[in-house]
Amino acid sequence: MARPSDSDTNLPFPILIGDIGGTNARFALLVDAFAEPRSFPIVKTADFANIDEALQRSILDTTSVQPRSAILALAGPIEGDEVPLTNCPWVVRPRDMIGKLGFEDVVLVNDFEAQALAIASLSDTDREKIGGGGERPAASRAVLGPGTGLGVAGLVHARHAWFPVPGEGGHVDMGPRTERDYQIWPFLEPIEGRISAEQLLCGRGIMNIYRAVSAADGDDPVLATPADVTARALAQEDRAAIETIALFSTYLGRVAGDIAMIFMAKGGVYLAGGISQKILPALRGPEFRAAFEDKAPHTALLRSIPTYVVTHPVAALVGLAAFARMPERFGVATEGRRWKR
Ligand SMILES: Nc1ncnc2c1ncn2[C@@H]1O[C@H](COP(=O)(O)OP(=O)(O)OP(=O)(O)O)[C@@H](O)[C@H]1O
Predict the structure, then answer these.
(1) Which residue's CA is minimally distant from atom 7 of ligand 1?
(2) Which of 97, 145, 221, 259 could form a disulfide bond with 214, CB atoms 3.0-4.6 angstroms apart?
(3) 123-310 adopts what CATH topology?
(4) What pLDDT shows up at residue 248?
């Protein structure tokens, strides 16, 4: 009978690792602690009725290696034996994975916990530095990821290990600060009266800012998707789109600076999520870093903190692979989220 276990011992290889978001699921297989991860094509969650079918058809049917355990990062809170995903109809049932797919051991973690694991070990080829001082290898770090939503996590170094600290930091309050903010704010769409960071800093947030900029100027919004807005902005073709992405960069810098102060993240603040990579040229501009540093009385502190855009295409899998190989390097508690045969 599969039961949640509180044991923190190593998982048996081969280990399947997976990062399952609202839109895409990315998987890789670790045959042993030393081999390079074998990756599989990214699958669309909408193409499969459930995760078991996706694993069977896109992984298990395509390899002779039978994974003995799985570590899956999920976009959603992990509670109980049935875990529904945010923004996707899949429900992950570890007991079914053990009973039907041949796994002996299944661990579930939060998707931003996996992003935090990743930033412990990304090399310079997997990140681009956007300002700030030098590296401090043992200092705390933080990661923010604008994508379908806004994920946030800290990464604390203690007792020779890295401890990921996932939370709901994407839902902190945002307020107007500049004169232009005060013009735009009345037109932003709130949730129950509140403008949270996630109302601005995700795909939906790009549209929220774009429509508010247009409304504040008395213009009709003509662009329909976040990709349209960023494409026009990066091509310097549309005034409202250009301002939208400049404001997005400013607001992302403000929140990133706040998160840096909360975690005292002298080791750096990392921007993950699909959108950071897509607007990288804009993040290299002055707005992001200026807003990040504009934190009197702590301007000098913030100036010293490096910021990075994560450029690795599947960073969460890098984090999960590092954890699978050397769990003792990380303070990841598996109580209540590990199931064994
Ligand atoms: N070129 C683009 N510029 C800005 N935003 C974009 C662009 N293309 C897609 N988006 C938006 O990015 C969001 C998806 O982000 P991302 O790719 O990080 O997904 P995610 O949250 O990791 O999702 P998942 O892991 O569920 O697939 C969507 O809101 C989408 O509208």
Answers:
(1) 227
(2) 221
(3) Hexokinase; domain 1 (3.40.367)
(4) 98
